[in-house]
Amino acid sequence: MSDYIIELKNIDKIYDETTVLNNINLSIYKNEFLTLLGPSGCGKTTTLRIIGGFETPDHGEVIFEGKKINDLPPYKRKVNTVFQKYALFPHLNVAQNIAFGLKIKQMNKNFIEEKVKAMLTLVNLEGFEDRSISSLSGGQQQRIAIARALINEPDVLLLDEPLGALDLKLRKEMQIELKNMQQRLGITFIFVTHDQEEALTMSDTIVVMNEGIIQQIGTPIDIYNEPKNRFVAKFIGESNILEGLMLKDYWVHFAGYDFPCVDYGFGENQPVDVVIRPEDVKIVQPNDGMIQGQVQSVIFKGVHYEMQIKSPDFTWLVHSTIMKPKGTAVGIKIDPNDIHIMKKGVKS
Fold this sequence. Notes:
Blueprint: E1 4-15, E2 18-29, E3 33-37, H1 44-52, E4 59-64, E5 67-68, E6 79-82, H2 94-104, H3 109-122, H4 138-150, E7 156-160, H5 168-185, E8 188-193, H6 196-202, E9 205-210, E10 213-218, H7 220-225, H8 230-235, E11 240-248, E12 251-254, E13 257-260, E14 270-276, E15 282-284, E16 291-300, E17 305-310, E18 315-320, E19 329-333, E20 340-343
Parallel strand pairs: 3-8, 3-9, 6-7, 7-8
Antiparallel strand pairs: 1-2, 1-4, 4-5, 9-10, 11-12, 11-14, 12-13, 14-20, 15-19, 16-17, 16-19, 17-18
């Protein structure tokens, strides 16, 4: 039997003659925390809604545990959804909100009470059974929405930007809490966000989308360190992206110089895009650098300084714990492992 719980095969979705999803192919493992990441309008929420049964694809197949479920309504799918607007019932207390799905199924009262207590323990809200929804903070309401979704024991939990309404501190706390919860439960989470840090923090797998097309699928480390194209490189974190020429295997020309690198298989004298992350640019004495430049600006960011360093062919974004004052002449060194080569293709 396949290790995939969900497979999307050749999915297309068109609204008013606009293609929202274009030939989406995606396989999702059991017990995986997968994040659909991309800007507004990229198709990530539509993909989630197709998995949940709230939308029907115009072409392609939705496979759940080996069976096609295109025409299966949401309530018959083994999935539950938590939306950004939690849609809790204000006239019901916490316990009644969580128990709603089980009451619809006419489950035994004692069974419901035990399940509600277990869910409140899971989301760290023990003793909140009789609280009114209006008395809860945003983070507490989100936990109740998750408990209500999980009480029906879905095989897959869909989360559509559920942290978007929370403040920064609480959002970071809930990122860790959600990941821990998913690991304890051992079920598949499919999470939608436009927040890169959120995706990198929580995910086993990230699916980067843009204009209805999957740009790259990989682990957070792979997506960050080895972006497949210019869009991914610019969308995930900050980058220095330069026009380059792959001279031959392990040698690339950019910024007016030839550099050793670890990439191969691009051919000889082929135009490429070169990505170098700001934290991988090392500042040295001018005579010790591969490139010479001058500091144009310095901003203190708390854990590092952000500097712009102008060289003859490029203005570099640099993140460093070593501060060089504006106007200082510096050298730049780049380790071969920190030079990432991409094929020419998708522009940002």
